[in-house]
Write a structure and sequence with these properties.
The structure is a homodimer of 389-residue chains. With 389 residues, chain A is of the alpha/beta class. The first copy, chain A, has 2 domains: 139 residues, Peroxisomal Thiolase, Chain A, domain 1 (3-Layer(aba) Sandwich), CATH 3.40.47; 226 residues, 3-Layer(aba) Sandwich (Peroxisomal Thiolase, Chain A, domain 1). Chain A contains 14 helices and 11 strands. In chain A, the strands form 2 sheets. In chain A, strands 3-2-4-7-1-8-11-10-9 form a 9-stranded mixed β-sheet, with helices on both faces. Chain A has a two-stranded antiparallel ribbon with strand order 5-6. The longest helix of chain A has 17 residues. Strand 3 of chain A pairs antiparallel with strand 3 of chain B.
């Protein structure tokens, strides 16, 4: 068993409505960039993992593991598609990590991709509802904006969270996205813009919702021995954890909390031997702005119920005590669902390498990524760092 | 790193058109049976893998990892869906195996499931075509019966394989299925029945094609240390291998061969330290009867081009030199695509434990499972045995 696993290369496409790109062109671009960044030739790669939520419903294509291996010039390499709705990307990273930990391989690539804009957006909403419980949520008319609206309403009722506080998440996400050349929305929005945007599912408005996005991202992983050999600045995966919850929101004890995240975070902190206050920055799953507030509570960056106030006070902004979603998050950077978990890791690596440009966090030593499937049925967390002195 | 990984429990549902069952009821039944068979309580399980090809297109449901953990009473357990078309099941087994090899867990459950009969069978054919190349095969009108018909035609042209020989695969599969109480088709068919059945895609006829099936299967895996502690008859995974090929048939050098299988078999034999002639029986992927002939050639049980004759001479029958598909295979037992790879392992374990009843292979010491995605874009192979004296 290799003692540690490192990320030695990253790649990411532009995120957006990419009419000239296809599923296969996107993931091939991201993968090639990651391999080039790792300074491998490509033929060292021993396995490929690809996270994608619903290529079947978005374009009729399953078996994307073989498709990606084929089109990336990796024919023959063992290839696995991993899916857990919007957390497919981080889960692909996790399986790639475990495959190296198994001792059976030294170099593995993990990618995430979704091509969402080739079908009408109402069909995309139906496809995305595949992340919920078909029999007990979808058939009754629930959609994801509706489910997160229920969570927001309950959070507001229990903790006094305000719509202004929830909206502040979006304002901050767009501020960061404006600094990210790969982001779908590279512009700022004001609190008034968010508060006055079109209602989607009360209390959530358009600018509380992440968009439909095309995009892909990839990372190359290596065993400790190989990473030390070929890489000057390996970024270590200090912990990889996953937890699940009921797939249906109504089956949970609390709808204003994400317990899968709390459990996964606890495991990750124990494994990495750190506490929440040791984390310097985090990429969290803000599919809806209320989700970021619940995320920072579950991750222990603030107390339960205080996520709104914490955000309003600027603690999560680029210059705050714990910058959240420096990439722009799902709201600002975009949310090609299967790609998101890998894109979070790409941003964390950029921060830890000190290569995040205008959105660089000062003294970024330890980063955390938090990727959620559905309304919280799955949560996958990774804790990353460079070599710590 | 644990040195070896064992299967310590198995479960399988009846295969067939199961109108009273749902996706979640099927996988929960198989999983519960596997946990009971392993003599665990269930709460020892540290991770769950589920292979399913297209729950999205068959029932709108993605995120089945969380769904299965939830409905199986394993809420909180890390859960991963794995997909590589019809080889999703074996790939779930492989990822479960790697997760134990990583040293991060001791008990893992791997299941496979597909609920295919809730949509019209022409829609099922469209969903299954997700295993092929959407842009270059499906959009041009290809279906899987058509692709395998091309392979059959070429095999007949190159090697003189006859339709009688291909038909003999189906005759033998049904003979075995008649002895399997879980099989979809528990009856024999004659050579004349097969030869005279309805044409589907020339030269393939109805009785050369595996059916649309509902079903699920599951296995519980344990690290060597734990398996020795709690299990009298652990079945060891001596090798787990995977290889890929171009997803589209027309991109391959040879359409009458399955090179992913040849590569995966080579790796598996090397890892297990055995030769093809050491294998006592095998479960292979006969989605169409021609596929079994190509499989036994790729696996080295006979020479390239001799699979037809080898089958005709009875070498692959229950009393032959290398019994193939004692379960009845995909043709006779049924083919709930995501479940098939796990069901193959369940049959292999039954044979190796000496619990296969009327279809027991004499002196079954080493078994092989061969699971294929699409027209050969993925192949996953496992080599299993009990403790060898």
């Amino acid at each position: 068993m290799t003692s540690r696993v490192a990320i030695i290369g990253t790649g990411i496409t532009e995120f957006g409505e990419l009419w000239d790109e296809s599923f296969r062109s996107l993931i091939t671009k991201a993968g090639t960039e990651a391999i080039n960044d790792s300074r491998l030739e490509g033929d060292e790669i021993e396995a490929l993992y690809v996270g994608s939520m619903s290529p079947g419903l978005f374009s009729g294509q399953e078996h994307v593991s073989s498709l990606v291996a084929d089109h990336a010039g990796l024919k023959g390499v063992p290839a696995t598609r991993v899916e857990a709705a919007c957390s497919s990307g981080a889960l692909a990273l996790r399986e790639a990590y475990l495959s190296i930990k198994s001792g059976e391989m030294d170099y593995v690539i993990a990618g995430g991709v979704e091509k969402m804009t080739d079908i009408p957006s109402n069909s995309a909403t139906v496809a995305l509802m595949g992340a919920g419980d078909q029999e007990w949520e979808a058939f009754k008319g629930a959609t994801f904006p509706g489910l997160y609206a229920l969570m927001a309403t309950r959070h507001m009722y229990e903790y006094g969270t305000t719509l202004e506080q929830i909206s502040q998440v979006s304002v901050k996400s767009h501020e960061n996205a404006a600094l990210n050349p790969k982001a779908q929305f590279r512009f700022k929005v004001s609190l008034e813009d968010v508060m006055n945007s079109t209602p989607v599912a009360d209390p959530l408005r358009l600018l509380h919702c992440s968009p439909i996005t095309d995009g892909a991202a990839a990372v190359v992983l290596a065993s400790e021995e190989k990473a030390r050999e070929i890489c000057d600045n390996p970024i270590w995966i200090n912990a990889s954890s996953c937890s699940t919850d009921t797939i249906a929101l109504h089956d949970r004890e609390y709808v204003s909390r994400t317990d899968a995240a709390t459990r996964a975070a606890g495991k990750a902190y124990r494994r990495a031997g750190i506490k929440p206050q040791d984390v310097d920055f985090a990429e969290v799953h803000d599919c809806f702005s209320i989700a970021e507030i619940m995320a920072i509570e579950s991750l222990g960056f603030c107390k339960l119920g205080e996520g709104g106030r914490f955000t309003e006070e600027g603690e999560t902004s680029l210059s705050g005590s714990i910058p959240i979603n420096t990439s722009g998050g799902l709201k600002g950077k975009g949310h090609p669902v299967g790609a998101t978990g890998i894109a979070q890791a790409v941003e964390a690596v950029a921060q830890l390498r000190g290569e995040a440009g205008k959105r660089q966090v000062e003294k970024a030593k330890i980063g955390l990524t938090h990727n959620v499937g559905g309304s919280g049925g799955t949560c996958v967390i990774h804790i990353l760092s460079g070599d710590l002195k």
